[in-house]
Amino acid sequence: MPSGVNFSFAWKSDTNSNQRNSKNTNSKSSNGQTRRTTPQSTSTTEIRIKLWGKSAIEPKIRGAYERLKSEYPQVALPNEKLDSFIQKVFQPKISQQCVLKNQSFNGEEKGHVIRRAAIYNLKSSYLSKRLPEDKYVVFYGRVTNGEFVIDDLKVIDNPKKKADAYEAKYTFYYDGPNHANALYDITQTAAENAELIGGEISSWNDYLDWKKQLAEMRIKGIKYIAVRVNLEEQQMSFLTVAPNKEALDEFKIALFRNEMSVFSNDYSTDRWKFEFNREIQNSPNSDNGIALQFIDFGEQHVLRNMGYLSGWDEQREYCKKDKKDRNRYNIGYFITELRNNYPNAYLCELKFDLSSNGSSIVERKIRRNGGLNEDDAEDLINEFYGEGYIAASQIGDFALIGRLKGAIRDLVNGKSVSQNLDEWLFDIGKARVSKKIDSIDKWQNEDINEEQKMAVKKVLAAPDVCLIQGPPGTGKTTVIAEAIYQLVVRGKRVLVTSQANLAVDNALERLITNPNVRAIRLGDYKKITESVDNITERKVLETFYNSIEDYVNREYVAGWDEEDEIIRTYDEDKHFVLDSYDAQRNIKIEIRDTERKIAEVEQEIDLVMKDSERESEIEIMHEAEKASIQLIRLYCQGTVSNVNFALSKDSISRVYKVIERSLMDLKAKGIVLTRAKIELEKLSLPTRLRQANDVVYSILISARQLIDVCSNIESGIDIDSNQELENLKAQQKVLMEKMVTDATPEVISEWQNISNQIKDFNEQGAGGAEALRELFVFDEEDMDISKFIENTLMENKDAIYEMLNAVNIELSNIEESFVNGHNIFEEKISNLEIELDELKSEIESKSHLADEMTERLEDIYRKYNADEDDIIQRIETKKEQVNVGNHKINREKWEPIFRGFSEWIADIPDFVQENDMYLDSYVNGCNVVGVSCTENTRTLTEKGFDDFDVVIIDEVSKATPPELLIPLIKGRKAVLVGDHRQLPPLFNEHEKSYFELVATQEDEVLPGEFQLSKDDFEKYKDMVTSSLFQRYFENGSQEIKHSLLIQYRMHSDIMDIVNFFYDGKLKDGAKNPDAAMHKAHNLTIDTIVGTEMIIPKRHAYWFDSSTLRGEKIFEQRKKGSTSTENILECYMILELLKKMEFKYANQNIERPVSVGIISFYFDQVKSIRNVIKEEHFHYINIEINTVDRFQGKEKEIIIVSLVRNTKSERRSIDSHIAAFQRINVGFSRAQNLLIVVGASEMYANQPVMLTDMDNGEKKEAFVYKEIIEMLDMKGTYYQSDDIITDVVADEVFESIKEMEVKNQ
Q1: Following CA atoms 283, 288, 294, 297 in sequence, which dihedral angle do they give, to the nearest 10 degrees?
Q2: Confidence tier at 104 by pLDDT (50, 70, 90)
Q3: Would 498 disulfide with which of 785, 830, 954, 1084, CB 3.0-4.6 Å?
Q4: Rounded Cα distance, 14 and 1063, in Å
């Protein structure tokens, strides 16, 4: 060992001095290899660095160097080469005090060591003048052929020298390979820190190895050759093909036991059957596939049945194209190839729910368009290839496990940005504590409460890590958003991450519009919510341009516009004053002219009214005359038999003129209807008018009488007989016979009336030709009168008819003239009154205008403190006082540029070219980055994000420790946000925690299937439960942790239930009645017998599903499935939904009420969806999913289906239903109403292991029993019989029986 070498071992404080000064202390690792626990001496102090020269510099170091120059421009000249910079830091042939660290690791090949090292200059005269104090540039690289090849660099704050670090004086050379190099000796064995590798890190690696082994054993897959979407059912269908029926059956078992994903052809080494390609994890094209939830099987056929294949190519054109463009093939091609390779191939249609991305698209389109149309199929199917593989989602674990192992290796090798991470990560007590918590002057969100403000202050103050516990509805996202803002305005770069994409997006959504925040959301855009789509790589530059435009407009252009508006207002006031004098004078003249017109119109109305009064008198006479006219018309038509009238002079004159010609014609033919004559010129005399009416009356009577005779003749009745008289005699005879038996007054009166009519006929001698004689002119006295009359009448019948019809028409014209005459006066008066109203309105309008002008003039006088004489001068003075040049920048120079900027943005056709030119630069300058916890590290490093000042990880409880490590190693400080009383990490099927999987697996494992052992569980328990965050929170210093305990989401009734999981510490944030009103569910639902059940003042209910009609009902499980369902609970939920829909339909609500239905098993989710799919809901908007898909969401109404009710009850802390974290999440999604549907007998007997929030002590509690008892006390505990009718009960029993038969 050369002189001057000084080792400083500081990993564990209890390491004794003998160990620290030992030259070579070795121990055996678990794999039998020698492990170095202290640095060894080297044979040289020379270090040789390879210069890049003219060789192409590797992208990673090139990007790191450019970022260094960007962040610290003083470090290197803009165009300075990397080689030049390296030689300035490590001066050639000069001894310099440096720190070296071995970062070598074992390669895949046994015994092969990948030589790597890190080095930084402690006393660089060059960097010390150009970097802030306590900042150092650390160079990372590989050792090849005796040279140090630098491939990365980072700026580190005050780096700590750990036990595996070498500090000494070294001399640097650039003279090529194959020379002595101190780094070669240091890196000859893998760098392993005994304290790290032998502790939790070792168990992390073991866990990942075991998980990889487990994933390999579970991997099953099947080829698909076509895909299509069913818009009506909102399902995806894949046409899969297996080599034979046995292979299909084997895959079906895996299908029931694993979550499935869709993968590209690259994931299989075989073209037609699934053979997992393990090299894909190292490929840049690797991904985690598209996860889908299996629903059901479609038709299954042997390959030769071709009729089944019609329609499978219809949507192929929408599918994603792979690099080989296999989508150009159709079903016929695939079938031919399959027959050549697998003649016994078997086809099977598999139906799945839409992907998470597809579900989001559907929700968005229904919200925007009210429904789906055929064109939407393209958007739902274009994330899938036209052919590929469906395989267990564990395939994605391989790439993830590789990333996790890489993160562990970086931690071990000291490549974490934080120099203290490896200390507090395993012992939270070693996290540094701030001595002071500073106040904050300006808050982005002024509405956050004091508790939330304290959490943000602790985030800023904590040197290493801050822990925030955020129970449901307490505003942890609000705290995260505020903390990001406060960090950004202090010049920090922040990474926001979570295992759940939704949690990341919720935090970023609140910061998008803040100009201080330049945020970008990285990752698969299909998994990113719509709310932050505008800050994804595709749109972030456009969003940035728009934000610049908004900033420029707000800071500059708006000020100029405001100034212009002020001057314009002054000019308007001036012109108004000048114009108002003439305007007011003109208005007065116009008002006088209008008043004169009004007088003229009023005079004309008076004249018309007088004429109208006279016309009214005439109208009265006309009304009386109308009755006569109508009666005459009816008589002429033969409708009435009697007529009596009195026509006016004009009317009788018009009628007589009509019939006068007919009278003359008839007389010439021997018919004389009247022998009198009317003198029309003398009708003004009343006596003459009465005589004229009598004459016309006589004419009409005679004409009508002759018409009747004609009718008799045509009917064969002799002219000498009188049919009317005969009819009267017949009626008299009938009445006489009736009086014999029923001599009522009515009958007697009617008999007398008939007898009088007969008497009149006899007295008048009516009847026969003699009665008609005087109406005819006879030439011979001895002629046959009857024959003459009959012949004459029949010859002139039509003439008589025409005369009566002419009279009828003329009378109609007369009657119509009465109406028209009256309407003319009404119309004329109406028009004049309209004109008058318009003139009056004109005066009113002009008067109002004059008043407004006067009022505005007075306002202007007051505004300028002036009068009529000096107002113009005062306005000019005000204009001169506006300082046009008083701006942040020169307006004349910048205004055209700024105003043109908006036009330039509007003219950009798309941002493809802009992104090509500027996107990388913009992204590298972002100060907030959002990404999921397990995102491929390339996503960050390729964008230049190697380190962050602060890493904020949300939903910490859902991630395993290795998953947290990926983002943790990139930050100088960490903020961990979570709630260990909510969802733990999921292990399988997106519905089971590790506790549940182990506790329920014994009856689920088939012969030969890999089984999880309880030994494995105990070994990796800390890895797959929420214990890491829980351990931190329960043991961390109060100065670095904070609990948010004021919740705003839930009604207090719901909070009372959730509080059983939080020691009663949650408080209701609704402090006033108005806030409580927002939690109203407004439902009144009775039981099936009409008694009170759900009422508006109660907000939490339990419906017991233990029994139905006195019979115990247990959970069900489909054959081959590891999931569970409960048919009774499905029907109970359906009945509740139908009652809610009916009640809300009668309330005229403005929008549908949001309802979430949560279960812990996907089979139950599918069953509920299936039960309600035939129903149509318009007033409630329903989402049905597993609890894991609901974390981070909330709904107005939540219905939780607990499902489990086993025949053999097991009282166990580890049993499934004791997994209170998941049930807590389900309950706490509710805002206004929570309905729990579950077997109370099962749950009341199950204990829950809780940890005291004050002292961390574990305690066993019967939480569910206490919840049920509390609800029973409140009167909100009901049975299935309260909502299930007899008809529905029969359906339930029948459905259970059908499943039992299928399982057999």
Answers
A1: -10
A2: confident
A3: 954
A4: 39
